[in-house]
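Quick look at the format.
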Amino acid sequence: SEALAQNGWFVGFTPRRNPEIIVAVLFEGGEHGRLAARLATQVIKAYVDKQRRLPSKVAKQDHKVDVGAIWNEAGDEQFHGGRFLIDVAKPRLPLATAAPGLR
């Protein structure tokens, strides 16, 4: 009977390391969390999709990045190291997507 149905709950987060969002859902009569998990998944997916559309703010640079590296060559028992300036092209900002039904 519905009066005796169990409540379902689910907690999800993303990303796995250093989470940016945590979603807790309590679904009354949700039967073991299956429906609560589906709802939490939709909330997290909406958050991730929105974050991917927003352009990242990057500090202005002269478009060169300083990179340090350590390596060795085959048969060589010594490590070599160096610093390099890598010329980085300006990233293109993602285009915004229209809401469903709009063009």
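Next, a different chain entirely:
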Amino acid sequence: MRTYRVFPFQTFYARKGLIPFPANSNIKFSLPERSFVELKVYNILGTEISTIVNKELPVGNYTYTFNAENLSSGVYYCKLQTESYIQSIKMILLK
């Protein structure tokens, strides 16, 4: 299982370029303040594939699992958005 870390108001931690990921991947992020959070996954065409988080969260560290077992191999985008921060990473699913 691969883990991705997202730190609002800091640099997004990820390797440059495409990041191969397994069918089940952990996505971790930290919130320095209470905020409404959206964590979504999109396909290469920009179609939303999965909503992982869509709610207000208090300050803290979070881990969510993205299950891609039913998806085809290909390029996907993971986007984290809060009230004052937005970041996305490009990932590639290899089966």
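The chain has a mean pLDDT of 80.

See the schema section for token definitions.
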